[in-house]
Structure formats: structure tokens, C-alpha cells
Specification:
Blueprint (H helix, E strand, L loop, with lengths): L1 H17 L13 H5 L6 H15 L4 H21 L3 H18 L2 H9 L1 H8 L1
Protein name: Peptidylprolyl isomerase
Keywords: Signal
Length: about 120
């Protein structure tokens, strides 16, 4: 009987401590600097924009759109990691261009590459 009571009390103690409690925070009023700053896009939003531009130029299946969204998300992460280094950004652009070439068929890739504005926005 003692063991049963100990087991139940441990069970309830662990269960109670495992529940996450959200700390109380006061409502914060945004500062003027926060309000005045333009909203920046996240890497995922930028990637979705690139995918939409590519999809508008050449129709893509839903699976291919997911693949390109992942590719462009990786591109923006790598560009952010490159910092101010122009050489590293150039290398990332070349990598993305090669991945685009590998992901699209030859004719479609040539059409995308011939549209210089689109190709530059996709790779840079």
C-alpha cells in the first residue's frame, strides 16, 4: 500500500512539473523605432516569392514548387551566412544557378536563363 501511494504521488508530481507554465509578461508597447521600421521579409517569404516568380514564368507542379521553395530558402540562408563577402555571395549564386540547371529540363532552363531579370532575381 505504501508503494502504491508513493508511486501515485510521484506520478502526479512529475505530471504537474512537466506542464509548461507561461510566465506572465506585461503588455509591451512597441517603440517608435519598431513602428517606423519597414517590415522585413523572412527567408521563407522571400523563397516563396522567388518560387511564385518562377511559377509565373513556367508552370510548376506542386512538388516542384516545394522543391524550389526549399532551394530558395537555402539560398537566402547561405547569403545571410556569407555576410559582406562578395566572393562568397558569388559562389552561392553559382551554386544556385547549377542547382536550377539540374532541377529544370534543358529547354526550360534556357528560357529562364534568357530572361536575365528573372534569372538574376533567382540566383542573387
Amino acid at each position: 500500500m505504501k508503494n502504491l501511494i508513493i508511486a501515485l504521488s510521484l506520478f502526479f508530481a512529475v505530471g504537474a512539473s512537466a506542464q509548461a507554465k507561461k510566465p506572465l509578461t506585461s503588455a509591451k508597447v512597441p517603440s517608435k523605432a519598431t513602428v517606423a521600421a519597414a517590415p522585413t521579409m523572412t527567408n521563407l517569404e522571400k523563397a516563396k516569392k522567388n518560387t511564385a516568380e518562377l511559377n509565373a514564368f513556367t508552370p510548376l507542379s506542386m512538388e516542384r514548387q516545394a522543391v524550389f521553395t526549399e532551394l530558395f530558402t537555402t539560398k537566402y540562408k547561405m547569403m545571410a551566412d556569407a555576410g559582406d563577402s562578395a566572393d562568397r555571395k558569388q559562389i552561392v549564386s553559382q551554386i544556385i544557378a547549377r542547382k536550377l540547371e539540374a532541377s529544370l529540363d534543358g529547354e526550360t532552363f534556357e528560357k529562364v536563363k534568357s530572361n536575365e531579370a528573372l534569372f538574376k532575381s533567382l540566383t542573387n
